[in-house]
């Protein structure tokens, strides 16, 4: 944005050097013009000129005027009204000296040089015009000659006006461009400053967002592991305990005791496998080897065998592959619903219905068990029994679905999980 640093630095150095030289000329040239005019006035005094001593006195007063305003008080240059007084005095001394002796046109020429540093706007034009008249009078040989040969004086005045006016115009344009450049540089500096602040703020926001993303990732992973542990280890351990308790009660009946122990071993192996898959964030094994409807049929059959309760699984609509996360959510919801039935419902029948619709897939789980009062609070559960419906609701909500629970004491329970029918392979 700021260009080549070397080029910019070099241009700035050259501009600074030129400004320093300009300031030196502004202070020194008035004395040079006054000295040259005085020397020529003494050495080659034109006819009709004022006597030497009065002329030297006026020249000395002019020098003191310049010295007081320019040399002794250089800081006054920024005080426009005071400098206007100085310039008027400068032209007055120049006019008197040119009338006294035409050689002082060299001093009158300083009016061109000082018009820009000390006069604002249009006053510069007035100063340049007045200076051109004085210089033309000097070039024409003095006031008396200018009056007697006024056409020649008028031509000289016009020539000086054209030359001085052109230089003045170019100088004013250059000054405007310089002011514009300074303004642009200042605006660029302000833009760079704001950009730097914005970059710093963005860096801070980026770091904050990274921190929040890490924290959100950690929290999400904790919630995922909590759900997986509940859906695998917790349910598996509950089933193992149930089977071992049943085995203890049937210790005297060898066949029943062996069946319950075998069921407990099978549950332990299955839970271990699912726990490992959960840690690795792999899909549940039933979905790796079968479609969702078949996995639900297999789940219902295993659950019925373990709990001795009939579980009927039905599918409606046109079954089709769904996004892996959707299928995992429905399978886990079915597992949790059946686990709740086994723990709390004391049901004799359970029905699972998987319904494929255009935009939604719904899993309904109904039982004829004890039921409970739905008050907007989580369903009753045994102490230490874990998530329950909370985990199921979190899973369904996480994929943009809804979970509805209907139940009344003595009338069973109906759980409905509706999720978007995202096609398989969708990101």
UniProtKB/TrEMBL annotation:
SMART domains: HATPase_c
Enzyme class: transferase
Protein's recorded name: Oxygen sensor histidine kinase NreB
Source species, domain of life: Bacteria
PANTHER family linked: NITRATE/NITRITE SENSOR PROTEIN NARX-RELATED, SENSORY TRANSDUCTION HISTIDINE KINASE
Catalytic activity as recorded in UniProt: ATP + protein L-histidine = ADP + protein N-phospho-L-histidine
E.C. designation(s): 2.7.13.3
Keywords attached to this entry: 4Fe-4S, Cytoplasm, Iron, Iron-sulfur, Kinase, Membrane, Metal-binding, Transferase, Transmembrane, Transmembrane helix, Two-component regulatory system
Cofactor(s) needed for function: [4Fe-4S] cluster
Protein role: Member of the two-component regulatory system NreB/NreC involved in the control of dissimilatory nitrate/nitrite reduction in response to oxygen. NreB functions as a direct oxygen sensor histidine kinase which is autophosphorylated, in the absence of oxygen, probably at the conserved histidine residue, and transfers its phosphate group probably to a conserved aspartate residue of NreC. NreB/NreC activates the expression of the nitrate (narGHJI) and nitrite (nir) reductase operons, as well as the putative nitrate transporter gene narT.
Stored Gene3D superfamilies: 1.20.5.1930, Histidine kinase-like ATPase, C-terminal domain
Cellular compartment(s): Cytoplasm
Pfam families cross-referenced by the UniProt entry: HATPase_c (PF02518), HisKA_3 (PF07730)
Primary subcellular site in the record, as a coarse category: cytoplasm
Residue stretches making up the Histidine kinase domain: 330-423
